[in-house]
Each structure stands twice: as structure tokens, then as C-alpha cells.
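subagent[fold] <- orchestrator: predict structure for attached chain, return C-alpha cells only, no commentary.
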Amino acid sequence: MDREIKIETENLALQLKYIAALEGLTMTKVKTLVNKKYNKTDSNRNLSNKLRNKTFRVTELAEIADILGYELYLKKKN
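subagent[fold] -> orchestrator:
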């Protein structure tokens, strides 16, 4: 079954943690995999701060989505 999740900016951190858990991963493991795949050195603390302060970049979200096996789409509102 394909899973579709509407991302809400107010709950982004919780939603990402939930999706990671559905995939059997922690955010720490997700960040480790992102760092490895995209040749980065960001810390888990850095990720936590960005999520808490809502200073997350779309590219970072796309990288996390990729690690979790998801794609990002923009859909016109009705």
C-alpha cells in the first residue's frame, strides 16, 4: 500500500519522527544515513534545532524523504 502524508509546518518534527518510526528508523539513524548518502557532516543536534526553530530547508526535507523512501510533491489547493 502506498502511503500519502500531508506535511504541516506546525507539526513537521513530529511528522518526520512518526514517518521514520513507520519505516523502522530513528531520526538519529535517518540523519546518519543522510550524512552518508549526501556526504554531509551535520549533527543530530543541528537537525533538532532546525526542526524546533522551523529553519529547515526544502533540500533537507527532500533528503530525509529520500532516505525514508518518499517523494515530495506540490499539489494545487482546491
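orchestrator: received. Logging for downstream: Helices lie at 12-22, 27-37, 44-53, 58-68. Residues 9-68 form one domain.
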